[in-house]
Amino acid sequence: MKRRDFLKYQLHGALWLAAGASGLVSAESLFAEAAPDVAVVKGAPGAATRAAVELLGGMKAFVKPGQRVVIKPNMSFPHPVERGSNTHPEVVTALAAMCKEAGASRVLVLDHPLSSAERCLEQSGIREACQAIEEDMVHAFTSPSFYREADIPKGEDMKRNQVMRDVLEADVLIAAPTAKSHSSAGVSLSLKGMMGLILDRGVMHGRHELDEAIVDLASLLKADLTVIDSSYVLTTGGPSGPGKVIKADTVIASRDMVAADATCVASFEWYGRTFKPQQVNHIRRAAERGLGRLDIENLHTRTLTL
Amino acid sequence: MQTRRAPGRSGPARLRNKRLRLPRPRAQRLVQALSLTLFLGLLAAAFANLASPVAENLFLRLDPLVALGTALSARDFPAGIVPGLLVLALAPLLGRLFCGWVCPMGATVDCADALLARRRRLPGSLRQVKYWLLALVLGSALLGVSLVFLAAPMPLLTRLWGLVAYPLAALSMEKALPLMRPVADALDIRTLLFLEIRAPLFATMGFVAVFFGLVFAASRLSPRFWCRYVCPAGASLALLSRRPVWRRRVSEKCIECGKCQRACPMQAIADDPHATRHGECILCRVCAGVCPTGAIDFPVSLPVLDSQIAQPTMAGRRAVLAAGATGAAGLVVGGLGLAAPLQAATVRPPGSAPEDEFLSRCMRCGQCALACPTNIIQPVWFSSGVLGVFSPGLTPVRGFCDPHCHQCGKACPTLAIRPLPLQERVWAKLGTAEVNRETCLAWKDKKKCLVCDEVCPYGAVELKPEPGNPVYVPHVDEKRCAGCGYCEHFCPVRPARAIRVGSKNQIRLSSGSLQSAAQATGLSLSLKQDKTWGIPAGSDEHGLPPGFSPLEESGTPGAGSEPLPPGFSPLEPEPAGGKPSS
I need a labelling partner for B98 at 20 to 30 A (CA). Which of A237, B279, B306, B535 fits? Predict the structure, then answer.
């Protein structure tokens, strides 16, 4: 890419950002227009989630009546939401409610915990919050019987793993990670978050090259919708925390996992500094391997403050 | 069950005799069945971590040998052993009622007998074995060494059901569940769809299975072989049951036909069928059931003069006891010699007493292991010496020790593991993790991993830059490490994990506060503290945190040495903004 093009694209994105942020465009006309590539909404987690998905065309654009949906939040640590290691319960409930409204036949909220499943579900607050929508929606599977061996056809390094059978059987996969740093992958967003849907993530560190394996896995578990909860951004000390948390009250949504992750990387500080998305190795590799776009400056990003 | 078969064998007589008192054996069987059911139910509750209104370890507490042996070896009377002492105290009144009516080991043996039992004449002197065992256990207990685990019935039975039968049942259920999945899925029965069955596995399962195979196979030699000849808990009750208040009586209607002698599962009826060896009688009243003339009943009678008390078959009991004690002493000394070095190398469950005291209290029942939700507690073989065999150790490969959980402390009736309040529990330092730099992915292969840091609940793993290594490497902060084993459990390196917990600097107390002891040695075992480290800015070779790479292209001289992947098309540096200053 030439320098001139780059600057042009930058300007292009900036204009869109300005249009959205200034509130010049009314909400109604926003929805009437073509859906943006990325929606960035500032506001209370639940409302921001709803607005972000609406900006992308509403949940009906992703979930058809009768379909089975799996939502993958971060809930594998027994920590409260303020620590930034788990997804905000209101983001999850907003997504689950929208899926039900869109006519989903079954909505499951699944993760593979790194600690006592019971305590993760309890402390994250996600199970209790989802009870209000439907009974028995949230599960943290540790038993191998919930996983099934799956090929990763587009895998370059990791070609097989055991994936949650409910994920393999789902029609729609929604990534709902929290925005957090990660002590080996740089950041842990939607791409990295897919490691919570497999049984043996150890091989991704040991046998495989982590960054490459993350992309391999995301090529199989490609989310139809990505909603990154950036209410509490854990900018250091991730993925478990404690670390520096920025209360950003933002939700970032996209059809494109890479674009959502890239936007998130560019939107906040990490380890006290700013980075370009392409500096995060696994995000760059994901874009290179065609999983999505990280040239956010060229993407149509709509921002909204509630 | 055997009690049913015995009358059955004398079929015609039984049917013709109107004065048969069948309800009595039935009452015994009913109580026995209820007792076994309660035992299994409580064990299931412990296994599934369900709250139970009755202490899950009730039956362990009822074992008289556990009570006696632990009181002697630990020189202590924890509340947990009081029921066992009560059973002992009641023996002069009720004889071996416990063995016949309550003991689930007896019930389990009866079940095996019902399938296998044969009657052979075994020498009466074989009965001495149980007294020898009792002498051995109590003799060594006097010396402070607990051999209760050798033959105390409740701990053994707990291991059979809790560490072998239930896990195998759970495993088969876990395997069977997917078969039901299509139905559950079609009907959206989520309880069934998402039912997760914990199927723990335990070391020494095979040994316990073989041991009980032998116990059950002994039914081929005689009914209740275990209770007659082996059980030292039964022996302790027998010693106190010379003349119980509730006992067998034979009236003058006895025609000395010998049916009762043949039917008695305990061989408690002497050559003269009028006489009873009360120390052997378990009050099952089978004899009364088979008696063709109704000469036998079980009245409550004062233990004054009674010609129907048979002389004990074990002549010279004192001599036997003395010999037993001496033998025990010798064996224990020998055992200690064998056991040397009696190392404290085993990582014990949180709240475990200091090693010597721990071994004097632990009866190897496995209750802590079966109650552990993560399966990290495993019976050990010889890692803590010969005399530490079957005691519980932590095996992080199987699970992690959740700092909020103390099911094991709740399970232990003899205070080998003290129950701790949560505040204290967090401060239980079980040992210290150590990184093996020869195998660690980050240290040796320079690969991104650092799962140990991710999972450590105490924030004890620090990532630090290492010269010449593009990735950060893990260091264990020993002041923050509680030895909980999360790191070892989740470490992806195989076959041996690259970070392992050893017993180094473990803190084990008989009493007092673990927190105070830990703080006194400068430890800081908190789950909520902030890490003082962050990824230090500019400390890797590019001045970047892990996971990030420099923006410049590798072709630029002087830029990062990490080669960019093929096909990468670099961006030119921006005039302002995003580029990190290093």
Answer: B306
